[in-house]
Amino acid sequence: MMQFDLIPEPINKYQLLANIHAANTTLYYALLCKYPEKCLPIIYTPTVGEACTKFGGLYQRERGLFLPSNLQGKFNKMLTDSNYTNVEIIVITDGSRILSLGDLGAGGMGISLGKCSLYIVGAGLTPRRVMPVLLDVGTNNETLLNDPHYLGQAKPRETDEVFYKCLDEFMAAASSMWPRAVIQFEDFSNNHCFDMLERYQKKYRCFNDDIQGTGAVVSAGFVNAIAASGIAPLKHRIAVFGAGSAAVGVALAIAALVSKVHNVAKEDVLKCFYLVDTK
Fold it and tell me: Which residues, including other chains, have CB under 8 Å from residue 191's CB and lie 6 or more apart?
């Protein structure tokens, strides 16, 4: 860790850890497990956002599985050839809404890599059973489209029809190959994330962390806050700075839980919310 400590900038610390990960997976996770308070803010938030914006420039070698839409029809073979075995967790993104940074295309792989590392360090999962995936369906980010170092498909995002054909194929192939695996949707844009849950959650073992994971944690805290404050549920006013999938998911989760715990209409709870879109 001496080299790590000597590096002043977080993004350069990220690069050091990424190089170690590419060269020696065992050493990488040994460092993360021994020094989580130093490493986790580097491999995930807040540093991972900058890493995603510069992913092409920081690239050393393949980490994670890229599934480009132009290879749709071959996803099953790509999963078979990936050398992952007995996968338990898959984190997949299309890079369309990364944190508060918007469309980062193939750079979103940094999010999948970071979240998988959290599963390994925090939950004790075996690295070979955790799979980061980037579904590359293009990008609408003009800066990336004109960047010679961009790693993804330098073309506008695919239509919804092509997007869902790709995702349908992936979900079927991954679930068939590893039926016990849980597939986590991460940082998909609002125009897809809620429809994806409707489409897949009753058919496959999957969830959306931005909507359901964040929503579960915050709603539990809010229900306790109601009890501590002594203020009736519908007298509260909740301002949410942001209107992305996580913000909407939090609002829906709070409304559902408060409705159930306090026997009030979900629609009335939602009227207590004010969402302010940062964009």
Answer: none
- Provide CB contacts within 8 A for 206, sequence distance 6+: 171, 182, 183, 184, 185, 197, 200
Please, are residues 253 and 261 in contact by the beta-carbon 8 Å criterion? no
Residue carrying the six token digits 């998909």: 188
Burial class of 277 by CB neighbour count within 10 A (0 to 12, 13 to 18, 19+):
exposed
How far apart CA 218 and CA 255 sit, in angstroms, is 11
Q: Which residue has the tokens 């469309």?
A: 103
* Helix (H), strand (E) counts: the chain: 14, 7
Residues in CB range of 203: below 8 A, 6 or more apart: 171
Q: Is the pLDDT of residue 62 over 90?
A: no
Task: Supply angle C-alpha 177, 86, 92, rounded to 5.
Answer: 70
Beta strands, E only, the chain: 65-68, 89-93, 130-136, 182-185, 206-208, 238-241, 273-276
CA atoms of 19 and 201, how far apart (whole Å): 36
* pLDDT tier for residue 99 given thresholds of 50, 70 and 90: confident
- Position 42 scores a pLDDT of 97
- Residue 21 CB-half CA count within 13 A: 24
In whole angstroms, give the CA distance from residue 115 to residue 247.
19
The alpha carbon of 113 is separated from its chain's Cα centroid by a whole number of angstroms, namely: 9
* CA–CA dist 177, 79 (Å, integer): 8
Identify which of 211, 47, 219 has the alpha carbon closest to the alpha carbon of residue 117: 47
CB distance 135 to 167 below 8 Å? yes
E strands, 108-166, in order: 130-136
Active-site residue numbers? Answer: 44, 115
Stated pTM of the model: 0.89
CB contact at 8 A, 159 and 65: no
